[in-house]
Design brief:
The chain contains 14 helices and 19 strands. It has about 475 residues and is of the alpha+beta class. The chain binds flavin-adenine dinucleotide. The site of flavin-adenine dinucleotide (FAD) has 41 residues, from helix 2, strand 3, strand 12 and strand 17. Flavin-adenine dinucleotide binds next to helix 2, strand 3, strand 12 and strand 17.
Protein backbone atom coordinates (compact mmCIF):
# COMPACT_ATOMS: atom_id res chain seq x y z
CA UNK A 1 0.00 0.00 0.00
CA UNK A 2 1.30 3.48 -0.84
CA UNK A 3 2.34 5.51 2.18
CA UNK A 4 2.59 9.26 2.59
CA UNK A 5 5.33 10.93 4.62
CA UNK A 6 4.28 11.28 8.25
CA UNK A 7 1.51 8.70 7.95
CA UNK A 8 2.45 5.52 9.78
CA UNK A 9 1.20 2.01 9.47
CA UNK A 10 -2.03 1.61 11.39
CA UNK A 11 -3.46 -1.54 12.99
CA UNK A 12 -6.46 -1.50 10.66
CA UNK A 13 -4.53 -0.94 7.42
CA UNK A 14 -5.43 -4.45 6.34
CA UNK A 15 -6.55 -3.86 2.75
CA UNK A 16 -10.10 -4.69 1.66
CA UNK A 17 -11.93 -7.51 3.50
CA UNK A 18 -11.63 -10.89 1.74
CA UNK A 19 -14.28 -13.37 0.65
CA UNK A 20 -13.76 -15.52 3.76
CA UNK A 21 -14.41 -12.49 6.01
CA UNK A 22 -17.78 -12.04 4.28
CA UNK A 23 -18.58 -15.75 4.16
CA UNK A 24 -18.18 -15.91 7.93
CA UNK A 25 -21.42 -13.92 8.50
CA UNK A 26 -23.30 -14.79 5.30
CA UNK A 27 -25.71 -17.11 7.12
CA UNK A 28 -26.03 -14.98 10.27
CA UNK A 29 -29.46 -14.08 11.64
CA UNK A 30 -30.35 -10.41 11.30
CA UNK A 31 -32.12 -10.42 14.66
CA UNK A 32 -30.01 -9.14 17.56
CA UNK A 33 -28.59 -12.14 19.45
CA UNK A 34 -30.09 -11.00 22.78
CA UNK A 35 -33.61 -10.79 21.31
CA UNK A 36 -33.34 -14.03 19.34
CA UNK A 37 -34.15 -16.27 22.30
CA UNK A 38 -37.24 -17.12 24.33
CA UNK A 39 -37.83 -15.29 27.60
CA UNK A 40 -39.66 -12.09 26.62
CA UNK A 41 -42.82 -11.36 28.61
CA UNK A 42 -46.06 -11.89 26.63
CA UNK A 43 -46.94 -8.99 24.29
CA UNK A 44 -48.87 -6.11 25.87
CA UNK A 45 -52.08 -4.57 24.50
CA UNK A 46 -51.95 -1.42 22.41
CA UNK A 47 -53.90 1.75 23.18
CA UNK A 48 -57.49 1.48 22.02
CA UNK A 49 -59.77 4.47 22.66
CA UNK A 50 -59.20 7.23 25.20
CA UNK A 51 -57.60 6.80 28.61
CA UNK A 52 -56.14 8.80 31.49
CA UNK A 53 -53.24 8.38 33.90
CA UNK A 54 -51.02 10.31 36.29
CA UNK A 55 -47.71 9.68 34.53
CA UNK A 56 -47.21 8.51 30.93
CA UNK A 57 -43.70 7.33 30.02
CA UNK A 58 -42.99 7.22 26.27
CA UNK A 59 -40.30 4.68 25.28
CA UNK A 60 -39.92 1.06 26.37
CA UNK A 61 -36.12 0.84 26.61
CA UNK A 62 -34.00 0.84 29.75
CA UNK A 63 -34.65 4.56 30.38
CA UNK A 64 -38.44 4.13 30.26
CA UNK A 65 -38.39 0.85 32.19
CA UNK A 66 -36.27 2.23 35.04
CA UNK A 67 -38.48 5.34 35.11
CA UNK A 68 -41.65 3.23 35.35
CA UNK A 69 -40.22 1.09 38.16
CA UNK A 70 -38.82 4.03 40.16
CA UNK A 71 -42.02 6.08 39.71
CA UNK A 72 -44.09 3.27 41.21
CA UNK A 73 -41.58 2.69 44.01
CA UNK A 74 -41.71 6.45 44.82
CA UNK A 75 -45.50 6.52 44.91
CA UNK A 76 -47.33 3.19 44.63
CA UNK A 77 -50.69 4.99 44.32
CA UNK A 78 -49.74 6.75 41.10
CA UNK A 79 -51.19 5.46 37.78
CA UNK A 80 -48.17 4.90 35.53
CA UNK A 81 -48.51 3.94 31.85
CA UNK A 82 -45.48 2.92 29.76
CA UNK A 83 -46.03 3.40 26.02
CA UNK A 84 -43.86 1.72 23.40
CA UNK A 85 -44.12 2.18 19.62
CA UNK A 86 -43.11 -1.45 18.91
CA UNK A 87 -42.06 -4.09 21.46
CA UNK A 88 -40.34 -3.29 24.73
CA UNK A 89 -36.53 -3.63 24.37
CA UNK A 90 -36.59 -3.82 20.55
CA UNK A 91 -34.30 -0.78 20.11
CA UNK A 92 -30.88 0.11 21.61
CA UNK A 93 -31.72 -1.50 24.96
CA UNK A 94 -32.11 -4.96 23.43
CA UNK A 95 -29.30 -4.69 20.89
CA UNK A 96 -26.30 -3.22 22.71
CA UNK A 97 -23.02 -4.75 23.86
CA UNK A 98 -24.17 -5.22 27.45
CA UNK A 99 -21.25 -3.22 28.88
CA UNK A 100 -22.60 -2.03 32.23
CA UNK A 101 -20.64 1.02 33.39
CA UNK A 102 -21.03 3.52 36.23
CA UNK A 103 -19.83 6.53 34.22
CA UNK A 104 -22.49 9.22 33.77
CA UNK A 105 -20.31 11.29 31.43
CA UNK A 106 -19.34 8.78 28.76
CA UNK A 107 -15.98 8.24 30.39
CA UNK A 108 -13.95 10.24 32.86
CA UNK A 109 -11.98 12.04 30.11
CA UNK A 110 -15.13 13.50 28.52
CA UNK A 111 -16.44 14.54 31.94
CA UNK A 112 -13.12 16.14 32.97
CA UNK A 113 -12.99 18.12 29.71
CA UNK A 114 -16.41 19.65 30.37
CA UNK A 115 -17.16 19.71 34.11
CA UNK A 116 -13.85 19.13 35.95
CA UNK A 117 -15.03 20.70 39.22
CA UNK A 118 -18.17 18.54 39.31
CA UNK A 119 -16.52 15.26 38.33
CA UNK A 120 -15.90 13.99 41.88
CA UNK A 121 -19.65 14.37 42.56
CA UNK A 122 -20.68 12.98 39.15
CA UNK A 123 -18.43 9.96 39.53
CA UNK A 124 -19.67 9.27 43.07
CA UNK A 125 -23.31 9.64 41.98
CA UNK A 126 -22.58 7.28 39.07
CA UNK A 127 -21.07 4.67 41.39
CA UNK A 128 -24.04 5.00 43.80
CA UNK A 129 -26.50 4.57 40.93
CA UNK A 130 -24.52 1.58 39.61
CA UNK A 131 -24.65 -0.04 43.07
CA UNK A 132 -28.39 0.69 43.32
CA UNK A 133 -28.95 -0.95 39.92
CA UNK A 134 -26.99 -4.03 41.06
CA UNK A 135 -29.11 -4.13 44.26
CA UNK A 136 -32.35 -3.86 42.24
CA UNK A 137 -31.24 -6.65 39.89
CA UNK A 138 -30.53 -8.90 42.90
CA UNK A 139 -33.56 -7.85 45.01
CA UNK A 140 -35.96 -8.27 42.09
CA UNK A 141 -34.40 -11.63 41.17
CA UNK A 142 -33.58 -10.49 37.62
CA UNK A 143 -31.38 -13.14 36.01
CA UNK A 144 -29.44 -11.14 33.45
CA UNK A 145 -26.03 -12.88 33.59
CA UNK A 146 -24.48 -9.98 35.50
CA UNK A 147 -20.67 -10.34 35.73
CA UNK A 148 -18.80 -7.69 37.71
CA UNK A 149 -15.40 -8.40 36.16
CA UNK A 150 -14.36 -4.85 35.41
CA UNK A 151 -13.50 -3.34 32.07
CA UNK A 152 -10.27 -3.67 30.10
CA UNK A 153 -9.20 -0.88 27.74
CA UNK A 154 -6.37 -2.05 25.47
CA UNK A 155 -3.71 -0.05 23.62
CA UNK A 156 -2.82 -1.13 20.08
CA UNK A 157 -0.39 1.74 19.40
CA UNK A 158 2.29 3.48 21.50
CA UNK A 159 0.39 6.76 21.89
CA UNK A 160 -2.61 4.84 23.24
CA UNK A 161 -0.45 3.49 26.08
CA UNK A 162 0.19 7.08 27.15
CA UNK A 163 -3.56 7.85 26.95
CA UNK A 164 -4.35 4.86 29.15
CA UNK A 165 -1.75 5.93 31.72
CA UNK A 166 -3.40 9.39 31.88
CA UNK A 167 -6.85 7.91 32.15
CA UNK A 168 -5.75 5.54 34.91
CA UNK A 169 -4.47 8.52 36.89
CA UNK A 170 -7.75 10.39 36.40
CA UNK A 171 -9.84 7.39 37.40
CA UNK A 172 -7.74 6.74 40.50
CA UNK A 173 -8.06 10.38 41.54
CA UNK A 174 -11.84 9.94 41.22
CA UNK A 175 -11.77 6.94 43.56
CA UNK A 176 -11.64 4.00 41.13
CA UNK A 177 -9.51 0.88 41.45
CA UNK A 178 -7.44 0.61 38.30
CA UNK A 179 -4.45 -1.49 37.18
CA UNK A 180 -2.16 -0.54 34.31
CA UNK A 181 -0.91 -3.60 32.42
CA UNK A 182 2.14 -3.83 30.20
CA UNK A 183 2.08 -5.80 26.95
CA UNK A 184 2.94 -9.12 28.54
CA UNK A 185 0.42 -8.70 31.36
CA UNK A 186 -2.45 -7.71 29.07
CA UNK A 187 -1.71 -10.58 26.67
CA UNK A 188 -1.77 -12.92 29.68
CA UNK A 189 -5.32 -11.70 30.38
CA UNK A 190 -6.46 -12.17 26.78
CA UNK A 191 -4.32 -13.64 24.03
CA UNK A 192 -4.18 -11.13 21.19
CA UNK A 193 -0.90 -10.38 19.41
CA UNK A 194 -2.17 -6.82 18.77
CA UNK A 195 -2.30 -5.76 22.45
CA UNK A 196 0.60 -3.53 23.62
CA UNK A 197 -0.80 -2.49 26.98
CA UNK A 198 -4.01 -2.20 28.95
CA UNK A 199 -5.95 -0.53 31.73
CA UNK A 200 -8.18 -2.71 33.83
CA UNK A 201 -10.86 -0.75 35.69
CA UNK A 202 -12.16 -2.93 38.52
CA UNK A 203 -14.82 -0.63 39.97
CA UNK A 204 -18.09 0.47 38.38
CA UNK A 205 -17.78 -1.85 35.40
CA UNK A 206 -19.29 -5.17 34.37
CA UNK A 207 -21.24 -7.05 31.74
CA UNK A 208 -24.82 -8.21 31.51
CA UNK A 209 -27.42 -9.52 29.10
CA UNK A 210 -29.35 -6.37 28.20
CA UNK A 211 -32.54 -8.02 26.91
CA UNK A 212 -32.83 -10.15 30.05
CA UNK A 213 -32.41 -6.97 32.11
CA UNK A 214 -35.19 -5.22 30.15
CA UNK A 215 -37.53 -8.19 30.44
CA UNK A 216 -36.84 -8.47 34.18
CA UNK A 217 -37.47 -4.76 34.73
CA UNK A 218 -40.66 -5.02 32.67
CA UNK A 219 -41.96 -7.89 34.82
CA UNK A 220 -41.07 -6.04 38.02
CA UNK A 221 -42.82 -2.87 36.82
CA UNK A 222 -45.95 -4.79 35.79
CA UNK A 223 -45.98 -6.52 39.21
CA UNK A 224 -46.03 -3.08 40.86
CA UNK A 225 -49.05 -2.10 38.76
CA UNK A 226 -47.48 -0.24 35.82
CA UNK A 227 -49.61 -0.60 32.69
CA UNK A 228 -47.56 -1.23 29.54
CA UNK A 229 -48.84 -0.57 26.03
CA UNK A 230 -46.93 -1.93 23.01
CA UNK A 231 -47.44 -1.23 19.29
CA UNK A 232 -48.53 2.25 20.33
CA UNK A 233 -46.50 4.92 18.50
CA UNK A 234 -47.14 8.37 19.95
CA UNK A 235 -47.45 10.81 17.05
CA UNK A 236 -47.76 14.03 19.01
CA UNK A 237 -48.39 15.70 22.33
CA UNK A 238 -50.13 18.91 23.37
CA UNK A 239 -51.30 20.70 26.48
CA UNK A 240 -54.82 19.75 27.44
CA UNK A 241 -56.36 21.42 30.54
CA UNK A 242 -53.95 20.94 33.43
CA UNK A 243 -52.26 17.99 31.73
CA UNK A 244 -50.89 16.67 28.44
CA UNK A 245 -52.62 14.70 25.70
CA UNK A 246 -50.71 12.07 23.74
CA UNK A 247 -52.02 11.01 20.35
CA UNK A 248 -51.55 7.58 18.79
CA UNK A 249 -53.36 5.78 15.94
CA UNK A 250 -55.47 3.76 18.41
CA UNK A 251 -56.56 6.56 20.72
CA UNK A 252 -55.55 9.37 23.06
CA UNK A 253 -53.98 9.19 26.48
CA UNK A 254 -54.37 12.14 28.80
CA UNK A 255 -51.70 12.35 31.51
CA UNK A 256 -50.99 14.76 34.35
CA UNK A 257 -47.29 14.47 33.42
CA UNK A 258 -45.27 12.83 30.64
CA UNK A 259 -41.69 11.54 30.59
CA UNK A 260 -40.02 11.13 27.20
CA UNK A 261 -37.48 8.29 27.02
CA UNK A 262 -37.42 8.07 23.24
CA UNK A 263 -33.64 7.91 22.70
CA UNK A 264 -32.52 8.25 19.04
CA UNK A 265 -36.09 8.42 17.67
CA UNK A 266 -37.52 11.83 16.74
CA UNK A 267 -38.36 13.49 20.04
CA UNK A 268 -41.91 14.74 20.48
CA UNK A 269 -40.59 18.11 21.71
CA UNK A 270 -38.71 20.32 19.26
CA UNK A 271 -36.09 21.65 21.68
CA UNK A 272 -35.06 18.05 22.44
CA UNK A 273 -35.25 16.88 18.81
CA UNK A 274 -32.64 19.46 17.71
CA UNK A 275 -30.16 18.08 20.23
CA UNK A 276 -30.15 14.43 19.15
CA UNK A 277 -28.94 12.66 16.02
CA UNK A 278 -29.25 8.89 15.37
CA UNK A 279 -25.87 7.31 14.67
CA UNK A 280 -25.80 3.62 13.69
CA UNK A 281 -23.40 1.17 15.26
CA UNK A 282 -22.95 -2.50 14.17
CA UNK A 283 -22.34 -5.78 15.96
CA UNK A 284 -21.40 -9.39 15.10
CA UNK A 285 -21.75 -12.38 17.40
CA UNK A 286 -19.97 -15.70 16.78
CA UNK A 287 -21.33 -19.17 17.30
CA UNK A 288 -20.44 -20.57 20.76
CA UNK A 289 -16.69 -21.23 20.80
CA UNK A 290 -15.56 -24.82 21.17
CA UNK A 291 -13.21 -25.78 24.03
CA UNK A 292 -10.00 -25.39 22.06
CA UNK A 293 -10.87 -21.98 20.58
CA UNK A 294 -11.99 -20.73 23.96
CA UNK A 295 -8.77 -21.98 25.57
CA UNK A 296 -6.72 -20.30 22.83
CA UNK A 297 -8.12 -16.90 23.89
CA UNK A 298 -7.13 -17.39 27.56
CA UNK A 299 -9.96 -14.99 28.44
CA UNK A 300 -10.54 -16.62 31.81
CA UNK A 301 -11.51 -13.46 33.70
CA UNK A 302 -14.06 -12.56 31.03
CA UNK A 303 -13.63 -8.75 31.19
CA UNK A 304 -15.40 -6.56 28.65
CA UNK A 305 -12.75 -5.08 26.33
CA UNK A 306 -12.48 -2.02 24.12
CA UNK A 307 -9.57 -0.69 22.11
CA UNK A 308 -8.61 2.92 22.55
CA UNK A 309 -8.63 4.85 19.25
CA UNK A 310 -11.33 7.35 18.25
CA UNK A 311 -12.81 4.59 16.07
CA UNK A 312 -12.90 1.74 18.54
CA UNK A 313 -14.18 -1.81 18.87
CA UNK A 314 -15.84 -3.28 21.94
CA UNK A 315 -15.92 -7.00 22.58
CA UNK A 316 -16.87 -9.55 25.19
CA UNK A 317 -17.85 -13.13 25.85
CA UNK A 318 -21.53 -14.00 26.22
CA UNK A 319 -22.78 -16.37 28.93
CA UNK A 320 -22.66 -19.24 26.40
CA UNK A 321 -19.10 -18.34 25.27
CA UNK A 322 -19.68 -16.55 22.00
CA UNK A 323 -17.63 -13.48 21.14
CA UNK A 324 -19.67 -10.31 20.66
CA UNK A 325 -17.68 -7.88 18.52
CA UNK A 326 -19.00 -4.40 17.67
CA UNK A 327 -18.21 -0.77 17.00
CA UNK A 328 -15.62 0.98 14.80
CA UNK A 329 -18.00 2.41 12.20
CA UNK A 330 -20.49 5.04 13.37
CA UNK A 331 -22.85 5.89 10.52
CA UNK A 332 -25.08 8.95 10.28
CA UNK A 333 -27.68 9.07 7.49
CA UNK A 334 -28.74 12.34 5.89
CA UNK A 335 -31.74 14.06 7.53
CA UNK A 336 -31.44 11.78 10.59
CA UNK A 337 -33.05 9.01 8.56
CA UNK A 338 -33.81 5.81 10.49
CA UNK A 339 -35.50 2.46 9.82
CA UNK A 340 -35.05 -1.29 9.62
CA UNK A 341 -33.00 -1.08 6.40
CA UNK A 342 -30.34 0.90 8.31
CA UNK A 343 -29.83 -1.98 10.74
CA UNK A 344 -27.90 -4.09 8.21
CA UNK A 345 -24.72 -2.71 6.62
CA UNK A 346 -22.59 -5.02 4.54
CA UNK A 347 -19.48 -2.80 4.58
CA UNK A 348 -19.50 -2.50 8.35
CA UNK A 349 -20.00 -6.25 8.88
CA UNK A 350 -17.17 -7.11 6.45
CA UNK A 351 -14.82 -4.76 8.26
CA UNK A 352 -15.85 -6.04 11.70
CA UNK A 353 -15.27 -9.63 10.59
CA UNK A 354 -11.84 -8.75 9.21
CA UNK A 355 -10.86 -6.82 12.35
CA UNK A 356 -11.91 -9.67 14.65
CA UNK A 357 -9.73 -12.14 12.71
CA UNK A 358 -6.78 -9.72 12.86
CA UNK A 359 -7.19 -9.29 16.62
CA UNK A 360 -7.65 -13.00 17.29
CA UNK A 361 -5.97 -14.96 14.45
CA UNK A 362 -6.71 -18.12 16.44
CA UNK A 363 -10.42 -17.58 15.60
CA UNK A 364 -9.82 -17.79 11.83
CA UNK A 365 -12.62 -19.94 10.39
CA UNK A 366 -15.13 -19.14 13.16
CA UNK A 367 -18.64 -18.34 11.92
CA UNK A 368 -20.96 -15.59 13.06
CA UNK A 369 -24.50 -16.50 14.13
CA UNK A 370 -25.90 -12.94 14.42
CA UNK A 371 -25.35 -9.53 12.85
CA UNK A 372 -27.26 -6.33 13.49
CA UNK A 373 -27.10 -2.59 13.89
CA UNK A 374 -28.80 -0.10 16.15
CA UNK A 375 -29.31 3.64 16.50
CA UNK A 376 -27.40 5.55 19.16
CA UNK A 377 -28.93 8.77 20.54
CA UNK A 378 -25.94 11.03 20.04
CA UNK A 379 -25.75 14.55 21.48
CA UNK A 380 -22.99 17.11 21.21
CA UNK A 381 -21.70 16.65 24.76
CA UNK A 382 -21.76 12.83 24.46
CA UNK A 383 -23.66 12.13 27.66
CA UNK A 384 -27.34 12.23 28.50
CA UNK A 385 -29.35 15.26 29.46
CA UNK A 386 -32.56 15.64 31.40
CA UNK A 387 -35.00 18.50 31.69
CA UNK A 388 -38.62 19.58 31.50
CA UNK A 389 -40.79 21.56 29.06
CA UNK A 390 -44.46 22.52 28.87
CA UNK A 391 -44.43 24.27 32.23
CA UNK A 392 -42.87 21.29 34.02
CA UNK A 393 -45.43 18.81 32.71
CA UNK A 394 -43.17 17.02 30.19
CA UNK A 395 -39.77 15.64 31.22
CA UNK A 396 -37.08 14.00 29.12
CA UNK A 397 -34.02 11.80 29.54
CA UNK A 398 -32.14 11.21 26.27
CA UNK A 399 -28.69 11.47 24.68
CA UNK A 400 -26.69 8.60 26.20
CA UNK A 401 -24.50 8.48 23.06
CA UNK A 402 -23.75 4.78 23.32
CA UNK A 403 -23.15 4.41 27.06
CA UNK A 404 -26.61 4.18 28.63
CA UNK A 405 -26.93 0.65 29.99
CA UNK A 406 -25.75 1.81 33.41
CA UNK A 407 -26.53 5.54 33.17
CA UNK A 408 -30.19 4.98 32.13
CA UNK A 409 -31.18 4.37 35.75
CA UNK A 410 -29.60 7.64 36.88
CA UNK A 411 -31.20 9.54 33.97
CA UNK A 412 -34.62 8.16 34.86
CA UNK A 413 -34.14 9.12 38.53
CA UNK A 414 -33.14 12.69 37.62
CA UNK A 415 -36.02 13.14 35.15
CA UNK A 416 -38.55 11.96 37.76
CA UNK A 417 -37.03 14.31 40.35
CA UNK A 418 -37.26 17.24 37.91
CA UNK A 419 -40.92 16.45 37.15
CA UNK A 420 -41.62 16.31 40.91
CA UNK A 421 -39.66 19.56 41.42
CA UNK A 422 -37.52 17.67 43.95
CA UNK A 423 -34.16 19.32 44.50
CA UNK A 424 -31.36 16.79 44.96
CA UNK A 425 -27.56 16.84 44.90
CA UNK A 426 -27.73 15.82 41.22
CA UNK A 427 -30.30 18.39 40.09
CA UNK A 428 -28.13 21.20 41.49
CA UNK A 429 -25.14 20.30 39.29
CA UNK A 430 -24.34 22.39 36.20
CA UNK A 431 -23.73 19.16 34.29
CA UNK A 432 -27.32 18.14 34.99
CA UNK A 433 -28.98 21.55 34.61
CA UNK A 434 -27.16 22.25 31.32
CA UNK A 435 -28.14 21.08 27.86
CA UNK A 436 -25.95 20.12 24.91
CA UNK A 437 -25.49 22.47 21.99
CA UNK A 438 -28.11 21.75 19.26
CA UNK A 439 -27.08 20.30 15.88
CA UNK A 440 -27.43 22.64 12.88
CA UNK A 441 -30.15 21.98 10.27
CA UNK A 442 -29.40 20.01 7.07
CA UNK A 443 -27.38 20.07 4.91
CA UNK A 444 -24.93 21.57 7.43
CA UNK A 445 -25.67 18.84 9.95
CA UNK A 446 -24.64 16.04 7.61
CA UNK A 447 -21.57 17.93 6.41
CA UNK A 448 -20.37 18.66 9.97
CA UNK A 449 -20.90 15.09 11.17
CA UNK A 450 -19.17 13.57 8.11
CA UNK A 451 -16.24 15.98 8.41
CA UNK A 452 -15.86 15.18 12.10
CA UNK A 453 -15.97 11.42 11.42
CA UNK A 454 -13.38 11.80 8.69
CA UNK A 455 -11.05 13.91 10.87
CA UNK A 456 -11.34 11.51 13.82
CA UNK A 457 -10.26 8.66 11.52
CA UNK A 458 -7.40 10.84 10.28
CA UNK A 459 -6.31 11.56 13.88
CA UNK A 460 -6.18 7.80 14.51
CA UNK A 461 -3.76 7.50 11.59
CA UNK A 462 -1.54 10.27 12.96
CA UNK A 463 -0.82 8.84 16.39
CA UNK A 464 -3.90 10.60 17.80
CA UNK A 465 -2.83 14.11 16.73
CA UNK A 466 -5.95 16.21 16.24
CA UNK A 467 -6.11 18.53 13.25
CA UNK A 468 -7.59 22.02 13.00
CA UNK A 469 -11.27 21.00 12.76
CA UNK A 470 -11.14 18.79 15.87
CA UNK A 471 -9.20 21.43 17.79
CA UNK A 472 -11.87 24.01 16.95
CA UNK A 473 -14.57 21.62 18.15
CA UNK A 474 -12.57 20.96 21.34
CA UNK A 475 -12.35 24.69 22.04
CA UNK A 476 -16.09 25.05 21.53
CA UNK A 477 -16.71 22.13 23.91
CA UNK A 478 -18.01 19.95 21.06
CA UNK A 479 -15.03 17.65 20.60
CA UNK A 480 -15.15 13.89 20.96
CA UNK A 481 -12.50 11.54 22.29
CA UNK A 482 -13.39 7.91 22.91
C1 LIG B 1 -25.26 -1.30 18.82
C2 LIG B 1 -25.29 -0.62 20.14
C3 LIG B 1 -24.37 -1.00 21.12
C4 LIG B 1 -24.40 -0.37 22.37
N1 LIG B 1 -23.58 -0.84 23.36
C5 LIG B 1 -23.67 -0.33 24.61
C6 LIG B 1 -22.95 -0.90 25.69
O1 LIG B 1 -22.29 -1.94 25.55
N2 LIG B 1 -23.05 -0.29 26.90
C7 LIG B 1 -23.81 0.80 27.11
O2 LIG B 1 -23.83 1.35 28.22
N3 LIG B 1 -24.58 1.33 26.11
C8 LIG B 1 -24.54 0.76 24.88
N4 LIG B 1 -25.35 1.25 23.91
C9 LIG B 1 -26.32 2.32 24.24
C10 LIG B 1 -27.47 1.78 25.08
O3 LIG B 1 -28.03 0.65 24.44
C11 LIG B 1 -28.56 2.86 25.33
O4 LIG B 1 -27.94 4.04 25.78
C12 LIG B 1 -29.54 2.38 26.39
O5 LIG B 1 -30.11 1.16 25.99
C13 LIG B 1 -30.62 3.42 26.73
O6 LIG B 1 -31.78 3.11 26.14
P1 LIG B 1 -33.08 4.03 26.04
O7 LIG B 1 -34.17 3.40 26.82
O8 LIG B 1 -32.77 5.45 26.35
O9 LIG B 1 -33.36 3.91 24.47
P2 LIG B 1 -33.98 2.74 23.58
O10 LIG B 1 -33.64 1.40 24.08
O11 LIG B 1 -33.63 3.07 22.18
O12 LIG B 1 -35.52 2.92 23.79
C14 LIG B 1 -36.27 4.00 23.27
C15 LIG B 1 -37.65 3.46 22.96
O13 LIG B 1 -38.52 4.54 22.69
C16 LIG B 1 -39.46 4.08 21.75
N5 LIG B 1 -40.06 5.26 21.11
C17 LIG B 1 -39.41 6.25 20.49
N6 LIG B 1 -40.27 7.17 20.02
C18 LIG B 1 -41.50 6.74 20.37
C19 LIG B 1 -42.81 7.27 20.18
N7 LIG B 1 -43.01 8.43 19.53
N8 LIG B 1 -43.86 6.56 20.66
C20 LIG B 1 -43.67 5.40 21.36
N9 LIG B 1 -42.45 4.87 21.57
C21 LIG B 1 -41.37 5.53 21.08
C22 LIG B 1 -38.65 3.25 20.78
O14 LIG B 1 -39.44 2.39 20.01
C23 LIG B 1 -37.67 2.56 21.72
O15 LIG B 1 -38.12 1.26 22.09
C24 LIG B 1 -25.35 0.67 22.64
C25 LIG B 1 -26.26 1.03 21.66
C26 LIG B 1 -26.25 0.39 20.42
C27 LIG B 1 -27.28 0.79 19.40
Amino acid sequence: MRRFPGVRSHPWDLGPPQVHHRDAYAEASETPFWLDRPGAPPPCASLAGDAECDLAIVGGGLSGLWAALLAKQDDPGRDVVLIEAKRIAHAASGRNGGFFMSSLTHGAGNGMARFPDEMPALERLGLDSFAAAVDSIRDLGIECDLELNGDLAVALEPHEEAWLADEAETLRALGHEVDLLDGEAVRAEIASPTFRGGMWQHTGAGLLDPAKLCWGLQRAALDLGVQALEDTPVSGLRRRGAGIELRSPGGRLRARQVLLATSAFPALVRSVRRRIVPVYDYVLVTEPLDESRLRSLAWSRRQGVSDSANQFHYYRLTADDRVLWGGYDAIYHYASSMGAAREQRERSFARLSQHLMATFPQLEGVRFSHRWGGAIDTCSRFFAFQGTTHGGRVGHTVGHTGLGVGASRFGARVALDLLAERETEATKLRAIRGRPFPFPPEPLRWAAIELTRNRLAAADRRAGRRGVWLRVLDRLGLGYES
